[in-house]
């Protein structure tokens, strides 16, 4: 058997119905502050792509609702600032079970995709209690 190793994650894909496309794209750019990928690099005209560090988040048009537990996690430099920005934009913050060495919470984009926000090494959860 040939051995190999997984060296990272290239991208994740979330879906949105067509009628929520503009709201979802705005959530990733305005609320989360992610940079869009140049459309010339994108393989599709619909949806969008954003860069989160070295990973891309792809937004695809699909009328099926996302699974309630499917999610991806974004590492943030300041969980408190992220939570404040999301709350100012009207986003709901969901508490997460404690995990040693990190504070975290969840939010959802306008299409219902679950997004976990994680800050490593933080002392307390800025979202209002133990992570």
Give the strand content.
25-35%
Spatially, the strands of the biggest sheet line up as 1-4-3-2
- How many helices? 2
* Level-1 CATH class name: Alpha Beta
Sequence stretches where pLDDT stays below 50 over 5 or more residues: 124-131
Helix and strand succession?
EHEEEEHEEE
Report the count of strand segments: 8
Count of spatially separate domains: 1
Briefly note the CATH topology name.
2,3-Dihydroxybiphenyl 1,2-Dioxygenase, domain 1
Percent in helix: 10-25%
- Described by the principal axes of the CA atoms, the overall outline is globular
Largest beta-sheet details: 4 strands, mixed
The radius of gyration computed from the alpha-carbon positions, rounded to a whole number of angstroms, is: 16 Å
Distance between the termini: 42 Å
Q: What would you give as the CATH superfamily?
A: 2,3-Dihydroxybiphenyl 1,2-Dioxygenase, domain 1
* CATH architectural name: Roll
Q: Give the mean pLDDT.
A: 86
Class by SSE composition? alpha/beta
């Amino acid at each position: 058997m040939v051995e190999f190793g997984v060296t990272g994650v290239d991208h994740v894909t979330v879906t949105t119905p067509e009628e929520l496309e503009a709201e979802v794209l705005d959530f990733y750019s305005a609320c989360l502050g992610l940079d869009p990928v140049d459309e010339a690099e994108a393989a599709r005209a619909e949806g969008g792509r954003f860069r989160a560090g070295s990973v891309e988040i792809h937004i695809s048009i699909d009328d099926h609702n996302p699974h309630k537990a499917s999610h991806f996690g974004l590492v943030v430099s300041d969980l408190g600032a992220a939570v404040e920005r999301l709350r100012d934009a009207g986003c709901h913050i969901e508490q997460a079970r404690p995990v040693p060495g990190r504070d975290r919470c969840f939010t959802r984009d306008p299409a219902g995709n679950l997004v976990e926000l994680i800050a490593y090494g933080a002392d307390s959860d800025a979202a209002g209690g133990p992570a």
